[in-house]
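Design request, C-alpha cells follow.
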C-alpha cells in the first residue's frame, strides 16, 4: 500500500533521536517525548485551499520541525507516519 497526501498535506516519518543526552545519560523509552523532527516522505500538490493558493515549499527528503502535537498518526505496513498540513510545519532543517 502507498499513502499519497492530498492538497496541502505532507506525509512525515519520524527521525530517530539519540537515546542518550549530551552528558552521556542513557534515556529509557518511557522518558522519551514524541519527536518533533521528521523526514518528508511525500507532499501533496498544493492548490487552492479555502480560497487561497498554496504552493508547496517542502519536498521529499527534507527534514522538518513540527509543533509537538500536530498531525494525524497513521500506521501502514508496520511503519508509523504522521500527516500534517504544510502550515503545521514550523521550519526546514538544513
Amino acid at each position: 500500500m502507498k499513502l499519497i497526501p492530498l492538497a496541502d498535506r505532507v506525509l512525515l516519518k519520524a527521525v530517530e533521536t539519540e537515546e542518550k543526552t549530551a552528558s552521556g545519560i542513557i534515556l529509557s523509552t518511557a522518558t522519551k517525548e514524541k519527536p518533533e523532527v521528521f523526514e518528508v516522505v511525500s507532499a501533496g500538490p498544493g492548490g487552492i485551499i479555502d480560497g487561497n493558493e498554496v504552493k508547496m515549499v517542502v519536498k521529499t527528503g527534507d527534514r522538518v520541525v513540527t509543533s509537538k502535537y500536530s498531525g494525524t498518526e497513521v500506521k501502514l505496513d508496520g511503519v508509523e507516519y504522521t500527516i500534517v498540513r504544510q502550515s503545521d510545519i514550523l521550519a526546514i532543517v538544513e
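Comment from the thread starter after seeing the answer: thanks! Residues 74 and 81 are 5 Å apart (CA to CA).
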